[in-house]
Amino acid sequence: MTKTTTKSRKAADHPTWKEIIQECITTEPRQGVSRSFIKKYAEEQYQLSGPASVNQLKRAITSGVESGLFVMPKGPSGRIKLAPSTCTKENAKPKPVSKKKPASGSKTKKGRATTKA
């Protein structure tokens, strides 16, 4: 019989990667930030560097996009922005839906019929 021992993890000295990304985006006055800028920000603020941090950053971005926390309007190589808050969507008035008339299949000319004799 073997016992499995569980080791308790040491609490991280820094916030989660999603929180780091949010903080980086909110401190910059630009329209979104790049991955390299987030990486540099994490290295300067929290001394996070190395190949593991790159993978963790990538995973945090993809999970944040899937959960709706971040938006990547130009695809995976573009800038990362915070998603618009849900409260602004709730307060916005819905656009009125205009009903379109169905287009008629065939157009007929009105007027007299011409016959060839």
UniProtKB/TrEMBL annotation:
One BP term from GO: nucleosome assembly
PROSITE patterns, A to Z: H15
UniProt xrefs under SUPFAM superfamilies: Winged helix' DNA-binding domain (SSF46785)
Comp. bias (Basic residues): 96-117
Recorded GO CC terms: nucleosome
Region (Disordered) location: 73-117
Molecular function per GO: DNA binding
Pfam families per the UniProt record, alphabetical: Linker_histone (PF00538)
Top-rank lineage group of the source organism: Eukaryota
Record domain H15: where: 13-84
Protein name: Histone H1
Organism field: Roridomyces roridus
